[in-house]
């Protein structure tokens, strides 16, 4: 895709063209462009948020997942817990548990069980 084509796609998406927005998200996913997905997610696009959560989880990016979780994306919270557990990041799990997340509390208990 040329720069000109991408600019036109952005313009169409900005005017509310849902097909252009879908194409813009697909392009960002293809490129692994977290910044573009973050921009679209922050603007309220749930599809962009879902892709951002998936990519952040695949990359083990706790910071991005933490940001999305704080914005109220429950899927991001679930992936954050899963990723923290995979990384054996007890600090992150303790933070989530202290904030009242029962799933994090359960995972933390499993990881620290001394049986």
The ordered string of helix (H) and strand (E) elements is HHHHHHHH
The overall strand count is 0
The assigned structural class equals mainly alpha
Large-scale geometry: elongated
Rg (CA only): 17 Å
How helical, in percent, are the residues?
Answer: over 70%
Which whole number gives the mean pLDDT?
A: 94
Which spans have pLDDT < 50 for at least 5 consecutive residues?
none
By DSSP (H or I, 4+ residues per run), the number of helices equals 8
Strand content: under 5%
Biggest sheet record = none
Distance between the termini: 56 Å
Fold blueprint:
Blueprint: H1 3-14, H2 18-31, H3 34-42, H4 46-59, H5 62-70, H6 74-86, H7 90-98, H8 102-112
Helix pairs in contact: 1-2, 3-4, 4-5, 4-6, 5-6, 7-8
Task: Write up this protein.
The mean pLDDT is 94. Helices cover 79% and strands 0% of the residues. The protein has 115 residues and is mostly helical.
Write a concise synopsis of the structure shown:
This protein has 115 residues and is mostly helical.
Keywords:
115 residues, mainly alpha, 79% helix
